Amino acid sequence: MKRIASALLLARAGLNRHRVQLGLALRVTVAAMLSLAFAQYAEMRLPLWAVLTAVVVTQVSLGRSLRATTDYLIGTVGGAVYGGTLAVLLPHQHEASLLAVLAAAVAPLALLATINPRLSVAPITAIIVLLVPTITHVTPLASAVDRLLEVAVGAMTGFLVSCVLLPSRAHAQVVDAAAHALEHMGRALSLLLMGLATGLDMAAAHRIQDGIGQSLVRLGAIGAEAEHERTAHFAARPDTGPLLRTLMRLRHDLVMIGRAALVPLPPELGVHLGGLLEKVARAVAEYFAHSGTALRSGQMPPPLEAVRAALDAFAAEITLLHGEGVTRSLAADAAERFFALGFALEQLRQNVGDLARCVGEWAEDGARRS
Question: Cα(110)–Cα(137) distance, rounded to whole angstroms?
Fold first, then answer.
């Protein structure tokens, strides 16, 4: 019985961990089946395009599905109108003329697609409209109309399935991605401040910063999807911009600290500041972790007293060292790194306060919706 219970717990944990991916797989499957059923019921010539369109526009979040549906419809309409017009106006009964018309259809649309990636489906649509009549023996106009109907059925089916069946909101994913980024920043800050005692090699510093950058790139992409949802009134949630900008400023603080940590603090400073920097690292890392938990649970931000106390103690010690003249004997490069560290930690204090405000806004929004 214990083995069965353990297996069930592991299975449940796996399902929870991959619930977004499993939900997407289910939505894609249902969208493909429904689009094929609708296309067959409407007796479309090529149900394939309806099914493919439904699969393409069914994305991991509602915001991404909305963007994919809009882009696919715009590109399809443009490609069908342009390709259909060329096919009707330019004769292409022979191979040479067909090649010429194909070049005239693809070249300008391919150029537009490179300028605006949202039109990437336009050249494909023009090719289909132009070449399908040679296979199915229909007129170019009928080919263009068929393509529009097939894509419309697939796009609407995929989007409606995304809205109805286990919908995944990008705003919820923003919260999870932001919490993950904060946890990553907390671990990175501890490593960077520890590096002030021994010095970090360039490769280690880059690995730490690259991990944070990847977290924020993912967060930025999800945030754009969340804004599509909000502007389309699919989600009455806070603007994601302030939270994303605050996390970017915190990342810049860590970049400045990382540059200072490439060389250890001079011994005369390390003996005074080493313990204080450990307290700062511990307090800020814990605050980041608790802020991520608060975001996920919709709670108010954790108290700032521990972070402020650690940073105040560090600032007071710096003031004392200035008064005693310890910093005047530093070499120019050591003094530059030392003052850059102090500036970065002061910026960190301000940005942690902004983080508390952002977490509070999301908590207040959750309370209003409740």
Answer: 26
